[in-house]
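Quick check before the chapter quiz. The format below is the same one you will see on the exam, so make sure you can read both the input and the output lines.
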Amino acid sequence: MAEEVTLSSHIQHHLTNAKMCTTDTGLAFNKACSDSGFWTWHIDTLAWSIGLGMLFLWTFRRAAKGATVGVPDKFQCFIEMVVEFVGDNVNKTFQGKSTLIAPLALTIFVWVFLMNLMDLIPVDFLPAFAGFVGETAFGMDSHDVYMKVVPTTDINLTAALALGVFLLMIFYSVKIKGLGGFVKELTLHPFNTKNKLAMVFLIPCNLLLETIALVAKPFSLALRLFGNLYAGELIFILIGAVGLMQLPLHFVWAVFHILVIVLQAFVFMMLTIVYLSMASSDNH
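Here is the expected output.
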C-alpha cells in the first residue's frame, strides 16, 4: 500500500538527502543509514556539486581556448566580464601578494553561484524524475528515492567549503608571519602591555578571544550560505505543495530569489578574500 502523502511528509521528503553508508551487511541506502553515524555519504550533494564544478571548469576552459584578440562573441564577452568583475574585487580587497587568490575567488564565486542556481528548477521536477527512474529501473518505491538538487542547502557542503577557506587562512598566516608570528598574533593581541607579569595573565585572555574570532569566521561562512539557501528552498517546497498552481507562484518567488542566489555567492567570495587578506597581512 502506498504511503499517504501529507504536507509534512512532502516537506520532509524534499529536505532529505540521498544517503549511502556501510553497515554490517554491506552498502546501505537512505532509511537504512539513519543510525550509521558520521560516515554517511550524501550522494546527491556530492554528485551535483562535483558535476557543477566540472561544468564550471569545462565552460571556462572552452572560453579560454576559443578566445580571440579581435571582437569577442557574446559568450567570450560574458566570461571576460565575470573574470574582470572578480579580478577588480580581488585587487581592491586583497592586500597581500599571491597568484592563487584571483583564481580561487573566481572558482568560489562561479561554483557557489551554479550550486545556488539549482534552486530555480521547479522543486518537484528532478526529484520526481529520480523517483521514476528508481521505480522503473530498480523496482524501488518512489517515496524511498531522495534527491536534493541544491548542494548549498546541505550544511555538510557549506561546512566543507568553509573548512577549505579556514585551512587557507592558517596556511597564509604561517607562510607570511611564520609560526612564531602566528602564535604571537593569537597571544599578544588585542591586550598588550610592557609589564611581563601582567602579560602572563593577559595571554590566556588574548588566546581565548583570538581563537574564538578565528574559528567564528568559517562558522559564519558555512551557516550564512546554508541558512539563506535552506530558507529559500523551504519556500519553494511549500509552493510546490500547491500543485499545478505552483508554476506562477514559483516564478514570482524565483524572480526575488535570483538576488539571493547571486548575493550569497558574492558574499562568500568577498568574505573569503577579506579573511585571506587579513591572514596575509603582517602589520604587527
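If your answer matched, good. The first helix runs from residue 7 to 14.
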